[in-house]
TrEMBL record, chain A:
<dbReference type="InterPro" id="IPR016049">
    <property type="entry name" value="RNA_pol_Rpc34-like"/>
</dbReference>
<dbReference type="GO" id="GO:0006383">
    <property type="term" value="P:transcription by RNA polymerase III"/>
</dbReference>
<comment type="similarity">
    <text>Belongs to the eukaryotic RPC34/RPC39 RNA polymerase subunit family.</text>
</comment>
<dbReference type="InterPro" id="IPR036390">
    <property type="entry name" value="WH_DNA-bd_sf"/>
</dbReference>
<dbReference type="Pfam" id="PF05158">
    <property type="entry name" value="RNA_pol_Rpc34"/>
</dbReference>
<dbReference type="GO" id="GO:0005654">
    <property type="term" value="C:nucleoplasm"/>
</dbReference>
<dbReference type="GO" id="GO:0005737">
    <property type="term" value="C:cytoplasm"/>
</dbReference>
<dbReference type="InterPro" id="IPR007832">
    <property type="entry name" value="RNA_pol_Rpc34"/>
</dbReference>
<protein>
    <recommendedName>
        <fullName>DNA-directed RNA polymerase III subunit RPC6</fullName>
    </recommendedName>
</protein>
TrEMBL record, chain B:
<protein>
    <recommendedName>
        <fullName>DNA-directed RNA polymerase III subunit RPC3</fullName>
    </recommendedName>
</protein>
<dbReference type="InterPro" id="IPR039748">
    <property type="entry name" value="RPC3"/>
</dbReference>
<dbReference type="Pfam" id="PF22536">
    <property type="entry name" value="WHD_POLR3C"/>
</dbReference>
<keyword id="KW-0240">DNA-directed RNA polymerase</keyword>
<dbReference type="InterPro" id="IPR013197">
    <property type="entry name" value="RNA_pol_III_RPC82-rel_HTH"/>
</dbReference>
<keyword id="KW-0539">Nucleus</keyword>
<feature type="region of interest" description="Disordered">
    <location>
        <begin position="186"/>
        <end position="214"/>
    </location>
</feature>
<comment type="function">
    <text>DNA-dependent RNA polymerase catalyzes the transcription of DNA into RNA using the four ribonucleoside triphosphates as substrates. Specific core component of RNA polymerase III which synthesizes small RNAs, such as 5S rRNA and tRNAs.</text>
</comment>
<feature type="domain" description="DNA-directed RNA polymerase III subunit RPC3 winged-helix">
    <location>
        <begin position="378"/>
        <end position="454"/>
    </location>
</feature>
Length: 316, 563
């Protein structure tokens, strides 16, 4: 009887001391502590009491409950985030947790639902709540324009979601890309012209017409035509489109690590080039450009004798 | 099995397409008239046939068929051999589409001869192309007469000048002797007269007509006694006779010792020259003049040592190249090495390095150059027809071979909707192909990769057919325009004839002006515009022929490489 009485009379001070002790332990082991650790530290503490204290700390939001392969872990929660969640209930905390874990890629509502097993209406309500508290934000994904992903308010969305430098508000900035395209080409072209006019030996001419991707990047940055910061990789994608336009050639050379502009011991060099042929004979005739070429035959509705494109071309 | 350059007639050829047949018909009609056109197109479409069948099926009387076949054979467009059923069966005739299509290129052959050998060369080649086969003596006389006629009074051209130009043309293999034809085994009753038969071999008929080059005398100029000079035609002769001179064979009583030795134009040699010119021009345009001179020198040096079907020239050492550069291009040896290195490094791969001896061994990559030029041609067509962004997509696919739709959008930096539109347009024109790669055996669309790709060879073949159709369209339009203004043309010709005769007989200026005014001003304008139209259509035909030549050279070169 006396034992039982002693238990029942465990006063609040004790509980507070236990709480503090557990918190200290958490701070000692920032990765988290298990039940075992608490038991070792306070062997006199009974399992029931321990569980009670831990539950209290959890509900107060001062401890994080994690699960790992060997069992349960208790971890100290950030003081800051602890204050944020004041006034939110458990479900909200759960959703918040899930969104936080998604990092800067964000997470879709459906995925949130799977992870927390809450009904859709609940989840939506919680999300609206959190948004109004400015704890999370919705970002439209550029890959699927109807999809909305949620991420923490102060987190920068990842490039794969926003599309990077070429997208502003989900719209591909074609004009911006075109302008950059032309500027890069002009830079390379004028460099090639200067090299040609210098009348040096051919090897020197060729080498002085080459520009590294770093040089082009610096030139574009100094031009100041871009509102967003462009990385060297961005410029390289623009230069690749110039290659596909047949206006520019690229060579890769080995470069010492640490040379300005080298990536993984390599540097990409670009050079403006001349076209190898003039527009071919076929396209100098109206038939070469005719949209109804396949339907044209002598004696038909569309025929060479009555062709209006030919008439225009002949009278030019 | 001897895989030499056997005559194109009897090789296992791919079928002739409808466009080619249409173009051949138009060319035959313009050059030889409707009867030859009818017989020729019939033979083209039906393959090898004997004389009676041709006559019956084409609805042409027998003697006209014989004459048409003569004309075609004289120009190398038709050949014959023993019938399929063995000796004793009637001789079969077969027309050559490729040879007929070459008629389109006559202006280019003549112009090339002019640039290389002057006016004399131009006229020699022109006469030979007009007549098909000629003996050297008749060529020399005709050309000398024509040259003399165009000169001022008192000047004339010696036969020896023409003979020397002729010999030069033969030395450089632009002209060759016609192959002597072996006797056809069956009786002569169904075989028409064969012009150009030299000392006939008495062996059995060969399974394939031998090429000109299989005869050792192919490029030997006969010794002829040709002394004299061109005769000027007296002015005042009938205009009709002037026109008929080229067509009617002048009956010449003199013999010069080269009877039976007939000459023809060696088209393949011209084609090699065109190919070299195209490569040199491309090098000049991509790099610079000096590089193109170096490549020209390399090609010149390997003219005789490289077989026509080779994919690259013989290896030449840098020392040899240095010695053979033209005198006015004095660059130092180290500079030459630099140019050669730059040529080798260029992505177009015009020149390759095959070794290090002699200062570096270099070859001209003929096949690769043709492939790259053909690719540039395809890109040019896509660019002009569909715009530079579609051209970007096209070039991207040529480089990366297979891409998904999303990848195309990303690499080309074109917004998704527009990229999709462009890809589908290119797909509908068969310039781009779609390849399905299923992930699961049930080929479900949601689990299949769809990759876009470009097949350069197939696309080149398709564009070649487009070119043939385009040329046929241009010719049709030209004939139509001429027909529309036929009445006006005839009137203008009549008036010109009247003017000429009046001038010759010393008429008063007022009479001349009176005749001139018979053509009204709007009619003059119409005539002027007609002339302008015809010229434009003519030059367009030649321009398209350049594309045809390049694409055909590429297709043939690829076929030889993959043989």
């Amino acid at each position: 009887m006396a034992d039982v009485k002693v238990k029942k009379e465990s006063d609040p001070v004790d509980v507070a001391a236990i709480e503090t002790r557990i918190k200290e332990l958490c701070q000692q082991f920032p990765h988290g502590i298990t039940d075992q650790v608490i038991q070792n530290d306070m062997p006199h503490l009974e399992a029931q009491q321990r569980a009670m204290v831990i539950n209290k700390l959890l509900s107060l939001g001062q401890l994080d409950l994690l699960k790992n392969s060997s069992g349960l872990l208790y971890r100290m929660k950030d003081a800051q985030s602890a204050s944020k969640m004041k006034g939110s209930d458990n479900q909200e905390k759960l959703v918040y947790q899930i969104i936080e874990d998604a990092g800067n890629k964000g997470i879709w509502t459906r995925d949130i639902r799977f992870k927390c097993n809450l009904p859709l209406t609940e989840v939506n309500k919680i999300l609206k709540n959190l948004e109004s508290k400015k704890l999370i934000k919705a970002v439209k994904s550029v890959a699927a324009s109807k999809k909305k992903v949620y991420m923490l308010y102060n987190v920068q969305p990842d490039r794969s979601v926003t599309g990077g430098a070429w997208y502003s508000d989900q719209d591909f900035e074609s004009e911006f890309v075109e302008v950059l395209n032309q500027q890069c080409f002009k830079f390379l072209q004028s460099k090639a012209e200067v090299a040609r006019d210098s009348k040096q030996s051919p090897m020197i001419q060729r080498n002085s017409s080459l520009a590294t991707s770093h040089e082009v990047w610096k030139y574009i940055c100094e031009l100041g035509i871009s509102k967003v910061d462009l990385s060297m990789e961005d410029i390289e994608t623009i230069l690749s489109t110039l290659i596909y336009d047949g206006k520019v050639e690229m060579t890769i050379i080995a470069a010492k690590e640490g040379t300005v502009g080298s990536v993984d011991g390599q540097m990409k060099l670009y050079r403006g080039v001349n076209p190898v042929i003039q527009p071919t004979g076929l396209v100098k005739t109206p038939c070469g450009l005719c949209p109804v070429f396949d339907e044209c035959h002598e004696g038909g509705e569309i025929s060479p004798s009555r062709c209006i494109y030919m008439t225009e071309w002949l009278n030019f | 099995m001897h895989r030499g350059r056997s005559s194109a007639h009897w090789k296992q050829r791919a079928e002739m397409t409808a466009q080619e047949a249409r173009l051949c018909g138009l060319l035959l009609r313009e050059h030889f008239g409707e009867v030859v056109e009818r017989v020729g197109t019939h033979l083209l479409r039906s393959g090898a046939q004997n004389l009676r069948t041709v006559a019956n099926e084409s609805g042409t009387p027998l003697d006209l068929v014989k004459k048409s076949l003569c004309v075609l054979m004289k120009h190398g467009a038709c050949s014959f051999r023993v019938g399929r059923k063995g000796p004793g069966s009637p001789v079969e005739y077969r027309a050559s589409c490729e040879r007929i299509l070459r008629i389109l290129r006559y202006p280019r052959y003549i112009y090339t001869a002019k640039t290389l050998y002057g006016d004399t060369g131009e006229l020699v080649v022109e006469e030979l192309l007009q007549r098909g086969h000629m003996t050297m003596s008749s060529i020399v006389k005709t050309v000398a007469d024509r040259l003399t006629h165009n000169m001022e009074e008192g000047r004339r051209v010696e036969y020896s000048e023409v003979v020397s130009t002729f010999s030069k043309l033969v030395e450089t293999h632009f002209l060759q002797r016609c192959p002597p034809v072996s006797e056809a085994a069956p009786a002569a009753s169904t075989a028409p007269m064969i012009p150009g038969s030299g000392p006939s071999g008495s062996g059995p008929a060969a399974s394939a007509p031998p090429t000109a080059e299989s005869f050792p005398d192919c490029y030997t100029v006969p010794h002829v006694s040709l002394v004299g000079w061109g005769k000027r035609r007296r002015s005042g002769e009938d205009a009709a006779e002037e026109q008929g001179v080229g067509k009617k064979a002048k009956t010449d009583e003199q013999t010069h010792g080269d009877e039976g030795v007939y000459w023809q134009v060696n088209f393949e040699r011209f084609h090699l020259h065109f190919r070299d010119q195209t490569i040199i021009t491309a090098v000049a345009s991509k790099l610079d003049q000096t590089s193109s001179e170096i490549v020209r020198t390399m090609l010149r040096m390997s003219e005789v040592t490289t077989p026509p079907s080779a994919s690259c020239t013989q290896a030449l050492s840098a020392n040899e190249i240095f010695r053979s550069l033209p005198a006015n291009y004095s660059i130092s040896r180290p500079i030459l090495d630099q140019y050669l290195t730059l040529l080798v490094d260029d992505p177009m791969e015009f020149v390759g390095k095959s070794g290090d001896s002699g200062g570096g061994m270099y070859v001209v990559n003929l096949h690769r150059a043709l492939t790259n030029l053909a690719r540039a041609t395809l890109e040019s067509v896509v660019q002009e027809r569909f715009g530079s962004r579609s051209a970007r997509i096209f070039r991207l696919l040529l480089r990366k071979h297979h891409l998904e739709q999303k990848q195309v959008e990303d690499f080309a930096m074109i917004p998704a909707k527009e990229a999709k539109d462009m890809l589908y347009t290119l797909l509908s024109e068969n310039l781009v192909l779609l390849q399905e790669i299923p992930k699961t055996p049930d080929h479900a669309p949601s689990r299949t990769f769809y990759l876009y790709t470009v097949n350069q060879l197939a696309t080149a073949r398709m564009l070649l057919q487009h070119c043939y159709k385009t040329v046929a369209n241009l010719i049709d339009r030209r004939l139509f325009e001429t027909k529309e203004s036929k009445r006006l043309l005839e009137k203008s010709q009549r008036i010109e004839a009247i003017m000429a005769s009046l001038q010759a007989s010393g008429a008063e200026p007022e009479q001349l002006t009176e005749v001139e005014e018979m053509i009204t001003a709007p009619e003059k304008q119409q005539l002027e515009s007609l002339r302008h139209h015809i010229n434009k259509l003519d030059s367009a035909e030649n321009q398209v022929d350049e594309t045809i030549f390049l694409l055909k050279a590429y297709v043939n070169s690829t076929a030889k490489v993959t043989q």
